[in-house]
Structure formats: structure tokens, C-alpha cells
């Protein structure tokens, strides 16, 4: 992705459900103050079914991301009722979002049991245990299929090594359970090894998932970039978020086919506090910063990032989830003031 | 299981590979000093293939556990070469070891980032992602089958609630990913709910695995008894072990068909330090204590347990894995002195 300086970029915005609109508002304000040359194309993603996609996501919303190749999404609740796929899964599928990237860094000034987390999880986002293929064999016996393909594994491995190289990272750890799932996780590892050979400057190791989780809680600083199949990524990325304080503080972005980058707050839509000006916009703001870096708006990204870190570190304007009393707008204003 | 007081009980002992014999020796010494009325039936489980089981485990070894219904096993390495199932898996299968139980408690005196861990993981140990059913669909596309059955799910759920009730625990959390694997994990949850209804005095909740791992690293004291399918159990039990210092400090026991109880140290065989009198026998000792409680030798169990905790807490005789300089025999002697 490249932009000529001075140009305005069009980006898709899905505020999402629940607290989504409030925290999206926070991003818009902060971007304004920082003078980010982005024009938002905002789409409502909600509870009306679009007959063309048979989902709660309109065709226009998807086209907007495909056209802009860059976007930001808030939390989306799963529509109620049987048989509905979650909107998150639908988006991953429709936009071919093959890698979910989550940098996880201890926030200076926000104390948890860990102050030494500085890693990135890269999750394969399209297959594995999420195939949706399940059936009952006989009464009382059900099975699910986990699918691993060479194509998707190579693609996410390639992304992980490329990310490591272009982000000054030194090591990629492939997480697996190939001692048990020899064929599926075995293929995943084989693909990682193939890609590793093309990046001799990046160290490569393989870590069994149970051991990985134990090591993460004992000594997370042993890890740098982690790449893994879908379900392990789901588990480990949330575990890592927990190390630094939770999903409310963890940014994420999804890399999709054709160079799409859809940044995303991975926390829930928190319907209980929606509309009350109580939500913490940090995860969405940090995700928006990831989007800016993808666009190579590094100057604005740095300024906004630092302003967020300073606001959290000072601790005067913490939202309730972090034990404070600030409102969403108090926090947003503090970030804007720091820019 | 019940024993008349004064009676001697016969128990199987598999010292295992690597450091196994040394730490098993430690258990024997400690049991002697505590006057535990157990006679060990020791079996070599090693690298010779028994043609009757086609495994590295002899028929006599299995028969010994089946007859005694109680045993203790050290670490076992997986035989090298393609196609060999790990000895651990073979044991689970042959003995129908359907539940792996791991109490996880912060050790007073051994400092980690957590001092508030007091939970028990109960893992379904026979099916799920460990079916071994995998194949290549076409070149570059492989699949694994996860199998969940009503029978195995009910059995482990029943065990978990029974355990909670008889061990003064208040809540059982079923861990799952039924929002994605609706049929397999859905069946697991259905079985847990059925059993929960029979135990109105035990609270019951369902927690999605990613959320569970995040909560565990933020606030493990929110959990009491956790029950889950095989792979989630593998992951979460190791994560929990990490919270209190690692597998070298975590006891475990397996409950099998016909009332078998096979206690087990779940750490590796550490071939690098084998035979050097450097290994930490704590996990095997604590596992042996679980075996004693199963036999209702509660007096001896308490005395040994306290002696282990005191030795660790004093910190004078720590083995290298805990940052100390004590040998296996130094540590063992200290435990014996405390009895
Ligand atoms: C909501 C759920 C379907 C989703 C997942 O399992 O991928 C979530 O946990 C995530 O990580 O985005
Ligand atoms: C060694 C391996 C096959 C085993 C498992 O995955 O069950 C181990 O991790 C365990 O937890 O006992």
C-alpha cells in the first residue's frame, strides 16, 4: 500500500454494535485532531438481513472494504437465533481475511502481573477447527473436521516471516500439536519450515501449544512472533491479551486477500454499558494506529500512539474497566490533548 | 476404594524413563519414613517392544495396574521412530484412563506472579482431538477428526461433579468452544448440563476457552473445578501449571475404568540431567500424595504433603529447576526430616 503525501485516503468504518459507535466516535475525533488525511466511509452493520449475502452484513459494506482495501471495525454481536454465523466469521470468509495480527505489549503505567510482554501473535484465520464441518455419526457420537491446507498455511507463514522482517523482529515460533495431530499440524509445520528457509535472518522454532501456554504465563519475554493455526491463535491471542490487561487494551488487524487490512477491536460489544459514555476506546484506537501504520502514515501513528500511552500511563483518565472513573469522552479528550 | 486399617496395599510403580528412577526412589524413601503400608509392584516400562501389545509397554505392566487398581508413574519418553504412539497415550487407551485430574495450588514459599491459584482441572483423556483419525483429502489438504461421544462426556462430567462434591469444591466450569464447534463441543456441554442437574449444590457455568485462558492469566482465583474435552484440558492444565511454577511442581492423577487410579508426574523425562541426582521429585511426590488420598491413607497423605510444602517453603533445599543447588537426595532427605 502506498500513498502520495498530501493525498486523502478513503477507509471503511464499521462502528459495530453496542459500544461500537461511541468508541468509533472517539477514533474519529482523535484522527481529526491529529490531522490524519482519512475520509471515512461508514457502514451500518447491524440486524437487517441482506438477501444478497443472506447475512447481517450488507453487500455495500463488503464492497466498501474491497474497494478501499483498508478499514476499521468495532465489536459485532452475533445475531440471535439458530444457524447464524457470527458476523466476524462472515467477514473473515467474505474478505478472505487470512491472518489476524495482534501485537501485545505491556503498557507502561498500566500494571498487571507482567511488565515484560512484547510479542505478536499471527493467527491463521480461515480454516482449521473453524471449518464448520460437523456431523453426528450415530446417536451420541459426533465429529468435527479440522482442515489444514498447504495454501492457507504457506500464506500465513509467509505473512508472519514478512512481518517479522519488516518490523525488526528476530524470531518466529510456530505453535502446534503435531505430536498428536501429525498430519494436519504436521502440514502446517512443514509449510512454516519451507517459508523459514527463505528468511535465514529470522530465527525459527516450533513450540507445542501446551508448552507454549505454560511458557507464556511463566516468561512471555521468551517469545517474539508466534504463528499458528486458527483455534490455537484464538486461544493464545486472548491469553496474551490477558497478560497485558485484557481485550480492552489489545489492538488487532486482519490481513486479507488483495492486500486488505481491516483493523479491529476484538473485545465484545458490551451491551450493558452501550450508549452510556463509559466504554474504553483504547483497543479500537490502538487498532486504528495499526491501520495508520499499514497506510504508512507513520508520523500520525506515532503521535496518536504516544498520546494513548501517555494518557493511560498518567492514569488520571481511566475508564471503569481499568478501575477509573473517566468517561469515554474524558479519555478521548485527554488523548487529543496529548497530540 | 477402601482399605481396612493395618492392611498392606499393593500398588504398581512405573519409574519411567530418564530422571524417572531417581524421583521414584525419592517417593519410596519418603513412603518408608512415613510408614505408608504400600508394597510396590515395580515394572520396567522401556524400549523393548512387547509383541502382545505391540508397544513399549509390557502386558504384565498393564495387568499389574488392572489388578492393583492403583499405581504411580514417572515420565515416559516417546519411542523414537515413525508410527509409535506415545506410551502415555497407550496407557490411557489400554487402561481406559478417562479423566486426568490436576489440582493446581500456589505453593506457599515458592514465589511466582500468582499467589492465588487454587483450582483443579479435569480433562477428558480418551477422545476428542486425540482420535488419531487423520487423512489427506487431496494433495495439500489434510483433515483430522475430533470425536466427542455422549458416553465419555457424561463419564468425565460425572467424575468432575463427584470430585467437586467430595472435595469441598463449589463450582464446576465447563470449558468449550461450542460457538464454533456447535455439535462436538455442544454435545460435551449438553452432557455437563445433564450431570449438573443432579448436583444442585454445585454451581455450574460454561466458559469459552479463549475467554477462560484470558481470565486464568488475569484472575485465576475466579475458577474452582474446570472440566473439558481432551485438547483444551491439555492446554489449560499446562497453563495452570505455569501459574504456580511449572510441571515440576504439579501433581496429577488419572482415573480409569473399573476404579483405576494412576497417579503421574506430567513433566518430561529430562534425559539431559538423568542419573545425576539433580531432578526435582516434587511433582511425583505430590502425585503419590494424590494416590494416598485415593486410598484414603489421609493421615500419611497429610504428613507427606505438609513435609513437601515445608521443604519448598523453607527454600534451603531447592533443586536447580527452582533456582537452588540441592540434589534430589538432599531434597528427599529434607522432606523425610519434616515427616
Ligand atoms: C466470536 C468468536 C467466533 C471469535 C473466534 O472464535 O474467532 C472470537 O473469539 C475472536 O477471537 O475473534
Ligand atoms: C506427550 C503428549 C502426548 C501429552 C498429551 O498431549 O496429552 C502431554 O502433553 C500430556 O499432557 O500428558
Summary, kept brief:
With 339 residues, the first copy, chain A, is an alpha/beta fold. In chain A, 38% of the residues lie in helices and 21% in strands.
Could you characterize what this model shows?
- 2 copies of one chain form a homodimer.
- With 339 residues, chain A is α/β, with parallel strands linked by helices.
- Chain A is 38% helix and 21% strand.
- Chain A contains 10 helices and 12 strands.
- Chain A has helices spanning 20-34, 59-68, 87-94, 150-166, 184-197, 209-218, 230-244, 282-294, 298-314, 328-338, and strands at 9-14, 38-42, 70-73, 97-105, 118-124, 134-138, 141-149, 171-176, 203-208, 225-228, 253-256, 260-264.
- In chain A, the strands form 2 sheets. Chain A has a 10-stranded mixed β-sheet with strand order 2-1-3-12-11-4-5-10-8-9, with helices on both faces.
- In chain A, strand 8 (171-176), helix 5 and strand 9 (203-208) form a beta-alpha-beta unit.
- The longest helix of chain A is centred in the middle third of the chain and has 17 residues, at 150-166.
- The radius of gyration of chain A is 20 Å and the shape is globular.
- Chain A starts with 8 loop residues before the first strand and ends with a helix.
- The interface between A and B is large, with 55 and 55 residues.
- Bound molecules: 3-isopropylmalic acid (IPM) (2 copies).
- One 3-isopropylmalic acid (IPM) sits between chains A (86, 88-89, 234, 266) and B (179-180, 210).
Amino acid at each position: 500500500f502506498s500513498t502520495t503525501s498530501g493525498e486523502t485516503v478513503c477507509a471503511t468504518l464499521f462502528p459495530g454494535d453496542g459500544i461500537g459507535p461511541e468508541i468509533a466516535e472517539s477514533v474519529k475525533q482523535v484522527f481529526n485532531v491529529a490531522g490524519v488525511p482519512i475520509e471515512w466511509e461508514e457502514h451500518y452493520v447491524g440486524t437487517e438481513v441482506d438477501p444478497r449475502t443472506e447475512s447481517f452484513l450488507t453487500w455495500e459494506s463488503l464492497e466498501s472494504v474491497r474497494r478501499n482495501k483498508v478499514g476499521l471495525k468495532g465489536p459485532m454481536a452475533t445475531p440471535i437465533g439458530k444457524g447464524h454465523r457470527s458476523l466476524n466469521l462472515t467477514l473473515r470468509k467474505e474478505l478472505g481475511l487470512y491472518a489476524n495480527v495482534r501485537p501485545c505489549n505491556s503498557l507502561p503505567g498500566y500494571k498487571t502481573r507482567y511488565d515484560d510482554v512484547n510479542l505478536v501473535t499471527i493467527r491463521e484465520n480461515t480454516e482449521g477447527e473453524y471449518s464448520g464441518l460437523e456431523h453426528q455419526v450415530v446417536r451420541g457420537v459426533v465429529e468435527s473436521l479440522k482442515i489444514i491446507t498447504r495454501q492457507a498455511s504457506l500464506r500465513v507463514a509467509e505473512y508472519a516471516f514478512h512481518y517479522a522482517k519488516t518490523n525488526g523482529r528476530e524470531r518466529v515460533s510456530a505453535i502446534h500439536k503435531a505430536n498428536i495431530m501429525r498430519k494436519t499440524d504436521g502440514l502446517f509445520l512443514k509449510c512454516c519450515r519451507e517459508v523459514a528457509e527463505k528468511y535465514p535472518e529470522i530465527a525459527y522454532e516450533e513450540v507445542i501449544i501446551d508448552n507454549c501456554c505454560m511458557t507464556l504465563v511463566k516468561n512471555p519475554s521468551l517469545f517474539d512472533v508466534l504463528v499458528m493455526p486458527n483455534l490455537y491463535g484464538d486461544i493464545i491471542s486472548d491469553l496474551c491479551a490477558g497478560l497485558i490487561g485484557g481485550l480492552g487494551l489489545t489492538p488487532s488487524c486482519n490481513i486479507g486477500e488483495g492486500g486488505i487490512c481491516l483493523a479491529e477491536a476484538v473485545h465484545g460489544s458490551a451491551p450493558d454499558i452501550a450508549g452510556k459514555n463509559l466504554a474504553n476506546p483504547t483497543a479500537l484506537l490502538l487498532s486504528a494506529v495499526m491501520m495508520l501504520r499499514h497506510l504508512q502514515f507513520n508520523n500520525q501513528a506515532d503521535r496518536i500512539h504516544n498520546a494513548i500511552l501517555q494518557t493511560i500511563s498518567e492514569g488520571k483518565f481511566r475508564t471503569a474497566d481499568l478501575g477509573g472513573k473517566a468517561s469515554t469522552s474524558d479519555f478521548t479528550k485527554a488523548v487529543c490533548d496529548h497530540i
